Amino acid sequence: MPFAPPVRLADLLASEGLGLRLVAGGPGADLHGVHTSEMADPFPYLLGGELLLTAGVPFQLGQTGPERFVARVAEAGAAALGFGVTPVYDTVPDALVAACERHGLPLVEVEPGTPFAAVARAVWRLMTEARHHELRRVADGQRALAAAAARPDPVPAVLHALAARLEGRAVLYTPEGGEYAADGRELTPDEDRALARLVRRVAGAARRPSAAAARPGGTRLVAYGLGPGAGRGLPLGLATARRDEAVQRIAETAMVLLSLLTAPHQGADEATRSAALVRLLLGAAPEDVAPLLGEAPWTVVHARGGGPGAPPPALGSPLVDAAADGTVRVLLPAGREVAPYPGWSLGASAPAAPGDLAAADAQAARALRRAEAAHTGLVRHRVGGFAALVDEEEAAAHARALLAPLAQAPALPETLRAWLSLHGSGDRTAAALGVHRNTVRQRIARCAALLDADLDDPETRMELWFALRWG
User: pTM to 2 decimals?
Assistant: First the structure.
């Protein structure tokens, strides 16, 4: 489901001016949408959670009976059934009421004169109001967590703010499984044992971040591994009776804050970094300064993405440089592994000695361009290969000449690059670019015409791919 909390059927029944009346079942159903159908079997067209509106045309025409219709609607997971009185029926059929009672499907009478569109509009309005309420909850929770993280005792303060938003308990554990800090309501013995099992499972995970969840009774228990890599960071255990998107987002914010507050010291501290900077400015060689910042060999990472104002990707190094064009450069000492980071494209150099960092920076830049062209999260520099045999300036000049016919429309080379990277798949290209597949088909045909090229020919595709890389 999208980030929009469901609407309670009781709230819809209370809407003024609709004249809705509950004739079977209870008002506690959650509505995730509205659908209108006069088909004998609407099952294939339902996702689940809908209020299905009908005037009973299939019953009148003898295409199906109330029992079969209700059974299929309940099987599809619909939340409730709305029956419009007139013009087909003057009252809700008794057989329909009985079928809804048997299948546990709430049945709502829509009075004459109330259009189904008005019912649908009321549901969407209630969903919008509920979504705004949830967004305010998330914003308020994040502000409270940020304020707690700025206090002199940030870890207990963050746990207190988190437990209050969860209406449950938040526990930070030591690597050995003991409680490091906790806040919120006390757990029952069964809940405490279940959460301890989850924490042990997370603490022993080979990769981070990791999570494990369970639900003993009505309480949801979740354990998270904070920090990168197995054996690093402290496990976080949460217990809450609520399970919605707002709670999840608030918990994710708390995880980030607690990871930063409890992470082991990484890299050089501010004083050491300042000393390294001063020595460089005074003429020291990079290989003489690098030991202050970390062990060689070094890896240079270029990153781009994340959206406007997004913080740099957390790659485990404080040596970060954010450029004005949105590119972030990170310098990783030995022992720091590069992994894909959600929302970012990364290019990583080969490990380099301090004296070779300038070359490694160029490698990372080229790797980032390949990552963006191929729409992949991480590309590492490859040693050798055909690309290393080509002079970049000559390649760029050839690429500009070859692709000049496409310069009139910037969307054409972008579409061609994505199409080639996805092996000529129109559907996947459309999904990657966020356009219709017919748009992709038209643009590719236009590229073929302007370039006077057979795009089905492998050699043509290869030449164009290299041209797009260097152009």
Answer: 0.47
